[in-house]
Every structure is written in structure tokens, then in C-alpha cells.
Amino acid sequence: MFESPLKSNARNAWSESQEELSETEPVSPVSKGNRGKKKKNRRQQPQQQKIEKRSVSAPQLCGEESFDGDDEQSEKRYTDYDKPIVRGIFQIGKKSHDVLLTSMRVTWSPIQPETPTGELTVRTEYVELKDVFGVKVKRRRSAGQETGGTLLGITLFQCKKKGPKLKDHAIHFNNMSVDHCEIWFKKLKEILSGFQNRPKSLKVFVNPASHKKEAYQIYRDDVAPLFQLADIKADVTITERKGHALSVLKESNLDGYDGVVVVGGDGSVAEVAHGLLLRAQMDAGRDTDSMFTPVRATLPLGLIPAGSTDVVACSVHGIRHPVTAAMHIIMGHHQEVDVCSFSCLGRLLRFGFSAMFGFGGRTLALAERHRWMPPGQRREFAVIKTLANLKPEDCELSYLPVKKVQTETLDPEESWTTTRGLFLNVSIMAIPCLCSMAPRGLAPNTRLNNGSMALITAGNTSRAEFIKHLKRYNSVNNQFSFSFVETQTVWAVRLRPRSQSSWSDDIAEDNGEYDSKNAPIISSEGAYPWNVDGDLLEVPSELLIRLHPQLLTLFGVYIEEAEEAHIKCSCI
């Protein structure tokens, strides 16, 4: 069982009487077979004394005076910023080890008896402190005992990388001396507290209704214990409705937090990301009902995947793995990310990462009306139904190529490229949108922070050809190698639907079972459905999408491709 002496009763953790704690005996370098025997060869005594000098139970604080002429070679191994701090004896596994702490690492080597030739072959191991996220006191307690207990030593918790995954790994340093462990514990805590990007206090939002309703269990079982090991204070809000997290972010005082974390799917991520950026505009006095240049969010955002696709989390972590996501947060890994703003009639509707119009928007709108279905069934039903009623969108599409853009001020009208026609789907994405069904991404030609968006249009074609295009996302083949598919690298997009009928008209025509009780959450007559980060957004007229480079910081790192098992959509 682990506890931190720096929490409650910090002083008492190191003031227990010696009757309750027994110190380990000094470790002798002499082998068991030679115990009690006198050494006849006096010439070996200097070497023996040198080894015995290390084998003391009390720790040695290392300063300039710690090195004499005999340790000249040891001193040369360390630079000015990596000087030894403390040295001592710990049992690691079943052997006693000589352990050295510097400002950058903990190094240990087994204490071995001298060989007849006087040569020692010592295997040295170490852990970099930049990979350590926690240190705890280790005690043995009886059943039902909540405090106290027999001191066993200290434990370091390391972040280890295995492929795309990050995992926690415990290294136990056993020594029953209170003074010994106290010095090591305090020195380690001092060093670990010096890593600036690592959060100490987090605001956490958990969406209990996300996907299979496992978000709270994921946080409780996989994430919260790691936060506790890292001494991170978490203020948790269990969201009760759509928009709950947004209202909290707009109204709460966020000054005491080092970051915000969301546990949920893409919809939850989109809401919290929008809330963070909207709060930043409010604090900066920006008028969101006009064409404005947004300011960056002050707090980084952490994503714990608990949804069905988790494209944002997968794009920044490379895998849907809650422990990996938690470790990125704990270690303070920061990744700047480009963000889009979505505006209609000069008014900001929301911030986001990606949007789809046409097939992507209509599929989501249909799925939202069948939320009583299980998530997987609902998604496949909506895809099949929308493909059965596949029809192109008549719209006017304008965009600003990146090469023509110098600033965030919109260029004159003549700088825009405009096309009019029929489109089955239009996608605008500021991030690659990696997921298990599209491991190379829905937009593999863009990056998290390259200052551009990918505009992907699928023109009017047969249903069979469009389905082939969709299937390519899950394969190694190029999904864009069709004559009806075009891609552009852009900075801004304007899309104006030209058809007179709205998607709600299509529902009435194509679905005899349509019931007003099953209408989408957002409903308005004559509006067109957009899929924005997995959320349904209805827009009555032209939508303007602008890119804002590196507007948000996420906890994570840049990933080229999702490294997890591919999942094929059985419906196509």
C-alpha cells in the first residue's frame, strides 16, 4: 500500500519510534562462505575498504566534498547540471544495490563480493527522472488498517513507452530506515516538482452517457488512480445534459487549474474544446457576433477516449487507450493544434476541428433521430438508409488556397476560388481525423498544426462508385484516386446550399415512420445538417469556415498513423 508523507500528517510520517520500525543491517560485501574468517592477505584490504565505504545504511548527501582523489573517475562522469545529490543502499528485488540520485536520473548497481582476481563486473541500471511521475512511501499494513504500518521503503512510478502505448511501471526501493527514506523521498519530490508543464490541478468533465456508458468507470478505474499517484488534484463534474460542460466553463473561475480534461467521445471533446476557446474570447473581450481574430485558450485540454470513434483523441495519441491518454496528461506532453471557427451571417456558431456536409451531415441527422438504438446499430442503420436515399447537394463552394493567404484577414473576393455544382459529400478538416475505421485518417494529407485545412469534395457519381470511395478509407489504397474526388489545401471555405428543400423535407419523404417525438436535438425549418466533430449543427444558409493556427493546446504528441486494430464497417 502506498501513501504520500507530504499529504496529511506529513511530519508524523517520519517521527515514528524506532521500536516500531527496524532498520536493515549494513550489507557486507563479503560472501556468506567467508563470514567470521580473517583475511590473511592484507594487500586486499584497501580494495575491501573502498567497497565497504559504499555499504552503509545511512544515506550520503553528495556535495563537492563527497569526492576525493580515489573518486576522480566517478566525478568526471557527471556534468555541472547532473551532479550527484544523495547516495545509499536499497534492496531492489532480492539483492542489495548501491543507488545514486542525480538531478537527472536514479542509477543503481548490485553490491557484489570481490572476485579472486579483484575484478568486478557490475551491471548498472537507471531511470531518467523526466520519465518518473510519482514517488510514494511503501508500507505494510494489516487488514483494515488505514494509517501507519511498517515502513518498507519508497516506490518510483515511471512512464514507459511500448509502441504507441504509455504505461505506468513501479520500481521498488526497499529500506526500512525512516531517516534514509525521508531524505530520498524529499529530494525526489523536489526534483519532480520542477517539471513545469506537469499539471497539479485539473478540471475534469465526465460524460456518463458517452457510447456504452463506460466513461465514469474508465475514469474511476484507469485514470483517477494514476492522477493520485502523480499527486494531481482533480475537480470532477459528471455532466447531466448536453451543454452542461459548456455552461460550467463559461461561468466558473478557472484560475486555479493547470488544465481541463474531458472523458467521453468526440461530441464531448467538441463541447469542451468550444467552451475553452469561447471562454478565452470572453475573457479577452472579443465580440463573437462579428468577424474577429480569436485568442488562444489559456489552459491545455486532455482527452480520455470513451466514445465510439474518438477521432480527436486518436489523432493526438495514435491509439484509443485511456491509460496512454492519462499518461500524456500527467507527463505534461503538449501538442499545439489548429482549430476552425464556424460562422453564419457574421455570427460565431462554434469552434471545432472538422465538418462534413452532404452524406456525412445527413447520416448524422438520421442517427440522431434514432438514439434509442444501440450506438453501433444506430450508426450502421443511418449509413445504410442514407446510402439507399443517396442524392447530391446542389451548392456553391468557395475557398481560399493556402498559397494565397498571408494573414488571418479575409482576402478580397477575387482571391477566392468558386465552383458550383452537385456534391455527394464535402469535408473540411483541420486535423487528420485518425480512427480505427480510417487508420491513415479521413484527411491524411493534413497535420495537427500545419496551418491549413483539407477540403475534400466528392462530386456526383453512382452509388456503387461512392461506396468504393468510402471503403478505401479502411484500406491501404488511396481513397482520393477517383475522378469525382478532389482535394485542396485551404485556409477558409464558404459553402452556400442552392437547393430549396431542406433535410427535414427529405425525412418526411423518405421515412414513413418519421415521428416529431424523434426529431433531432436541434431543429429548425429550412436548415441544412452539418456534422461538426460528431455533433449535429443546423445552418439555415451559408456557412463560413476559417482556420486559426495553433489556437488550442492538447495533452499529447504528433502521430502519423493510428496504430490499433482496423475495424471495418459491416454495413458497406
UniProtKB/TrEMBL annotation:
Pfam families found in the cross-reference section: CERK_C, DAGK_cat
Biased composition (Basic residues): 34-43
UniProt biased composition (Polar residues): 1-16
GO BP terms in the entry: sphingolipid metabolic process
Any GO molecular function: lipid kinase activity
Residue ranges constituting the DAGKc domain according to the UniProt record: 197-346
InterPro entries, sorted: ATP-NAD_kinase_N, CERK_C, Diacylglycerol_kinase_cat_dom, Lipid_Phosphate_FormReg, NAD/diacylglycerol_kinase_sf
GO cellular component terms attached to this protein's record: membrane
Protein name, as recorded: Ceramide kinase-like
